[in-house]
Amino acid sequence: MIWNPWKEIKRLRNKLDVEASWFYASESHNTDLQREVRRLMDRSNKLNIALQNIIAEEKPTSNATVKRIVRIAREGLRQ
Predict the structure, then answer these.
(1) Is pTM beyond 0.85 here?
(2) How many CB atoms lie within 10 A of CB 2?
(3) Is 74 exposed, middle or buried (0-12, 13-18, 19+ CB in 10 A)?
């Protein structure tokens, strides 16, 4: 199976939104949930950095495969 970083980012953001909305709506401050939210945010940030690094690899002389991968990475950052 080919791993799609933009889909993973979208999945993590959706999970974070659901869990964060529950967290902020509740009266009790569950430290386990806070840790999980921080972990998801860290993972999302790392994925964003990885996509930015892929985009940075594009050069004017890059072949079609590299340009296609960079296009996919840009699309992932937009979502």
Answers:
(1) no
(2) 3
(3) middle
Q: What is the rounded CA–CA span in Å between residue 66 and residue 16? A: 31
In the chain, the amino acid numbered 78 is: R
**b vs e for 12-50, b when ≥16 Cβ sit within 10 Å of the residue's Cβ?**
beeebeeebeebeeeeeeeeeeeebbeebeeebeebeee
* Angle CA 18–19–24, to nearest 5: 105
Residue keyed to tokens 């993590």: 12
Per-10-residue mean pLDDT of the chain, 79 residues long, equals 71 75 59 80 89 91 92 85
Q: What is d(CA 70, CA 12) in angstroms, rounded to the nearest whole number?
A: 21
